[in-house]
Amino acid sequence: MTPPVIGITVSRNFEKHQHYNQIPTSYAKAIIAAGGLPMLIPVEFPLDYIHTLLTRVDGLLLTGGDDVDNRLYGGEAHPAIEGVCEERDQLEIELLKKAIQAKKPVLGICRGVQLINVALGGTLYTHIPAQFKSDLIHRTPREKGGEYLAHEVELDLNSKLGKIIGVNRFQVNSFHHQAVQTLASDLVVTAQATDGLIEAVEMSDDPFGVIGVQWHPECLLAIQLQFKIFTAFIKACQK
């Protein structure tokens, strides 16, 4: 069987008078390890050709990165908002909506789950420390590394993600300062941190559909329950 092709979104960064499309290698490695073929989608991809693109990929991975523009959801302005890229927001929103129409499986990670919620009509906390009372540290210092397990989440075992992972409580890494606030009407919450912050959402219409997680499972492939997220995604993309 030919491995499914997974379209992966990227970040746009600016340095030394040049714009770069960049992404951590962990995303592509996770897709390959699970049996898929990664295809990076540049921020500059023409919106008029998204339909053509979706005929050539079997699934969509919305990756982490900088903040979604708070003006898209009427979010509270805050000086901690960083790296907003209107072109990336617009591209990913159109990709998501058309992937849903085409019934392509979609996996969102970190910024990806936030983008899914905004695209479908939800809102975000634009800076958790200022807008959500918690004793948990959701933005782990980068020097601790991607495998550092920051806090526990509780998962609904009756959800699609719950059936994939099969464990009610487990530890996750955490590298975000924004999060889902008001949930989009088409989504359901499937996991929360111990402080109540939303950690995973999904659409409940088909076997995989759209699943978003706030943590970074691509950095935790040595943990079997995290790797299951990617194997289930790739399996869904093969159908």
Written account of the structure:
With 239 residues, this protein is an alpha/beta fold. It has one domain: Class I glutamine amidotransferase (GATase) domain (Rossmann fold, 3-Layer(aba) Sandwich). The protein is 27% helix and 23% strand. The protein has seven helices and 13 strands. The strands form three sheets. Strands 4-1-5-6-13-12-11-8-9 form a nine-stranded mixed β-sheet, sandwiched between helices. It has a two-stranded antiparallel ribbon with strand order 2-3. A hairpin with a 7-residue loop joins strand 12 (198-202) and strand 13. Helix 3 (86-101) crosses helix 4 (111-119). It is globular, with a radius of gyration of 17 Å. The relative contact order is 0.18. The mean pLDDT is 95.
- The CATH topology turns out to be Rossmann fold
CATH architecture: 3-Layer(aba) Sandwich
Which homologous superfamily in CATH is the superfamily?
A: Class I glutamine amidotransferase (GATase) domain
> Strand percentage, roughly?
15-25%
**What is the topology, as strand order, of the major beta sheet?**
4-1-5-6-13-12-11-8-9
Continuous helix count: 7
C-alpha-based Rg, rounded: 17 Å
- Can you tell me the residue ranges where pLDDT is under 50 for at least 5 consecutive residues? none
Helix content: 25-40%
Estimate nothing, just give the exact number of structural domains.
1
